[in-house]
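Dear all,

This email documents one entry for the complex benchmark we are building for the journal club exercise. For each entry we list the sequence lines for every component of the assembly. Then comes the predicted three-dimensional structure of the complex as a token string, followed by one or two observations. Please use this as the template for your own entries, and keep the labels exactly as they appear.
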Amino acid sequence: MSVKVEASHDGIPHNKVMVIGAVISLVSLYIAIIGTVIGVDYLAFFGGFAAVGALIWGNSTIKKLCSYGIGTGVPSAGMLAFGSGVIALLFAATLGGISIWIVPVAGLIIALIVGLFLGWISNSVLNMKIPVMTRSIAELAAVGALALMGFGVVATGTVGFTGIATIEILGVTVYNASYIGAGVIAVSFMLGAIALQHPFNACLGPGEKQDRTNMLAIECGFLSMIIMAVISFVFVSLAAAWISLIVAIIGWFVSYVKYLALSKRDAAAWLDAKPFSDAEE
Amino acid sequence: MQEIIIGIGVTALAGALAAVAGAAEDTESNIGSQGDPNSQVQLAPQMGYTHRIYNKAVSGEPPAYTLWVTLACGVAWAFLMLGVNAILAIIFGTVLATFVQGVYATTAYLGRTASLSKFGQPVFIDVVKSVTTVTMAHAFVAIFATVTVCYLMMTVIGHPFALPLLGIVWGLALGAAGSATGNPYYGKERQYQNQKFGAGVPISASGNIVRYAEAGQRSSIDNGFFTAKFGGPASGLCFGLIVFFELWRTIIFEDYLAGWGAVIVGALVIIIFMIIDRYVEVWARKNYGPYAVEA
């Protein structure tokens, strides 16, 4: 059995962060779906908020999982989360044929099932024996599915399978230039996987603070949204793409500046072009 | 016949571009201290060695470069779809990827350094300004060359994968080549240049990395000067050969045995390289350092 080493004392407990992140993510996805149902795509930028909410949740999960001494495994946790998230996303998107309203919740539930299974394999078959493993991997899979859905909404404006697997070019339905067909989902996958592992990985150390790490999670989410907004010019209307891009840039800039301020607060010293003084000298 | 000649030309061009990409990637990661040598940079202040070395802890090089190259490919694809000229589209994609790389680099340096405040490690703003821009410049070269290789594969050779998927494959290969080939030179030679040659790295020397220059204190731009002479070109050669042999075997031998010809030649190339590697390793151990006389 691995020994738990507390990364840092948390102001907000993990369960509360999880609920906040999941609610932000699901509510944003449903607002975006309202747009799909009434036939407008300029609510696509809510997908970015969904991704940010999911990343805040996932960041807290990674911190909890990695308190069991999985230091170099932090980046791989991001890959695993989004790998299992893709399965849930595709399955849930096909259920959009029944009703588009069930897609986000279905994605969440399928991801939790996939994650529980993977967690059981890691803990019982591969014998890792980390107490929070099963629950954490289930949570990470759900985070991956929600964040991928969010990025997909920013890029295409919808969560349904038709929207992400086909595109209309000059009145003809084409598959190989769609969000999935052209491999844009690979960009979402990598953006999300690195954005999920980066905040805790970057703030790792004895002086890690929850508010600084969370601010970095928000920053990573908006930074990824900028890229998806640029790609969305192919899929959504010009107005919708510009709205997403401007919202993303403002969100990124504000969170980046706040992150810089928090780093300055926590740093031992903030020196510009000054040498360090060595303790031995 | 003409197809094969064009194919060979593209193979040579892609191999050359990949060599440039590999060299730039390794130099970039050494200047930023990414990959496994980063653990010593992280450890040094905890052992009482304050330093001015950059701490670009984004992730290992393979995942990081997978992201930069994939997103550059994705954005380039989007601009191609919007009717932008191919070279401009690749440049736009690369610029955005470089921007993302720079932002990730600064947040990693600030985050890690601020979390080491307990050990008195300060944040050096001049290091952020000077080193980040240098890593971004090298990353631009590496990403641009790799995206161009992917674009050539997709358009001229007619690879069935979409551009971002090729980006995942070749970004991962680029990061892996730079990490496996170039990092030992930085992590074992450069960081421990002040230790006895051939001594390995004793536990007592952990964290005691090179922190001073000929005059004054080093920033990690100096690591780029050092590794660009050997580690960078070696990584470039590695990635260049990977891309070259991959395309060469496909173009020449794909028509034999219903495609299996290319697979068999690929396996043969791997075996030949394993023999060469083993020979070089044994030869190096015999000729250098106290390895051979280990009691």
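Observations: The CA atoms of residues 81 and 140 of chain A lie 5 Å apart. Chain A touches chain B through 60 residues (CB under 8 Å).
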